[in-house]
Amino acid sequence: MHQHLKVATGKWKQISRYCPLDLYSGNKQRMYFALKSLLQEAQNNLKIFKNGELIYGCKDARSPATDWSELAHHLKPFFFPSNGLASGPHCTRAVIRELVRVLTRVLLSGSDKGRAGALKLGPGAQGPCVCEASAFSRSLHRQGSSSLERSGLPKGCLLYRALQVQMLDLLDIEGLYPLYRRVEQYLEQFPEQRKTLQVDGPYDEAFYQKLLDLSTEDDGTVAFALRKVQQYRVAMTAKDCSIMIALSPCLQDASSDQRPVVLSSRSRFAFSVSVLDLDLKPYESIPHQYKLDGKIVNYYSRAVHAKDADMVSTRLKESKDCTLVLHKV
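Structure for Inositol-pentakisphosphate 2-kinase, as requested:
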């Protein structure tokens, strides 16, 4: 829904086909589709650097075909180092395909042998379901497929861990805002309690332990409201963090490097994965999130209503004969 508002306000030219449910599904086919969609419409959500220089990012004024051709030119020596792969659309598709496969494998990799973390929130062995609005879902429907194997994320991989934290947000902003107002009203009466309640930190072990209480039954207390507010802040931080993947070509017999290795069709890469932008979302940002959510929902509702009205009008215009029959009751 946010995509519709961004396009309407001129921030982006067209709606991205990327759906986070596809990326977090753990299903390689859906993840491949999500990453490829990000490459088609990066929208500042995906950047690629080569030796520290930005070679691919959000260039809204250019066509994806032009950007993909340049990206393939940069990356071809890494994925097809010696086979003389010709240039042109075939070469571009081959390089992009290999890049997406490698990224998918890296995102599904884990180092703790499937050991689950302390938060027991996620979708278990299965990933999130397919979103009906997802371009992948529509593509699946066109192909005549009604079901898809739900692979789920390995518990040791970074996406699984991020998803657990994101799912601390059990109420969404509409359910959370009244609880935020409860905390605000309490702090207006007792401002000296702000430090005692750890509203602004410190974010230590005691703060973390409070996050583990996932009860949803509201007992009317300030403690319950504040716990949900803090869980929401942590979840929003995980939803807006950045993942950095570093790939470095390595020789077949390279064994001294302790970094994990991922294989492509003709190359192998040592890789590392890091998480950035983990500063906790400010407590004061909640009213802004509430207002933004209202704008997103209102615009989407109006846009969908207008679209439905246009469709009905078109159908009436296309109908040549219309007979209204009234029966006495």
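Residues 286-318 form the longest helix (33 residues).
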